[in-house]
Amino acid sequence: MMSSARSGRPWFSTPVLMTCAAFAAAGVVAYVPLSAPGGAIAALAPPLYAIVAGVQSVMVFTARRFTGITGTATITGLIGALIAAVFSPVGPILVLLWTLTGAIFDLTLLLWERRSPEPARPLGLHDEARFLVAAAAAAAALFAVSLPVFSPHHLSPAWLGLTLAGRLIGELGAVVVAGLVVRALVRVGIRRPVHTRR
């Protein structure tokens, strides 16, 4: 019988939830310095903001890669957004964006793993494609939900194409950094949380 990590089923034990909360808090620490200039950057240069916004996804992706448990990216995104909302005038939007990022990442990996005989391994270099595809799916979703807030000036094909490219660069960069973080944690002896049914 496969373990919960290998089967992709979510076992949200206390250690798993605490791990998600820790990554969420780290994500908020990285987000807060960018929250003030973020609005101005988004208004003036959406493609640049799309790249910079990838910082918000690093810990969301890291949680899923570190635990290997479906749903941890979503939980981490939700917890992080609820905390970050305190420091941001666009709190409800953050809840939508961060939770959506985690949900799409989780869902894409789950669908991939159901079609593959072996689940994604957080440190497997040959499995990196799975995480890149999941990050690209998250980028596409984030781009789609951001369209309603674009100014008419930024709805031209050129601006839209550049912004989509920026989203892809930001999210793909985030998932690569997440992999580096996971490797660093494992290297220093940080153990993954126990995921058993309560």
TrEMBL record:
Transmembrane segments: 12-34, 40-61, 68-87, 93-112, 132-152, 172-190
Keywords carried by this UniProt record: Membrane, Transmembrane, Transmembrane helix
Keyword Ion transport among record annotations: no
Domain of life: Bacteria
Presence of keyword Transmembrane helix: yes
Protein name (record): Energy-coupling factor transport system substrate-specific component
Organism per entry: Herbiconiux ginsengi
Phylogenetic lineage: Bacteria, Bacillati, Actinomycetota, Actinomycetes, Micrococcales
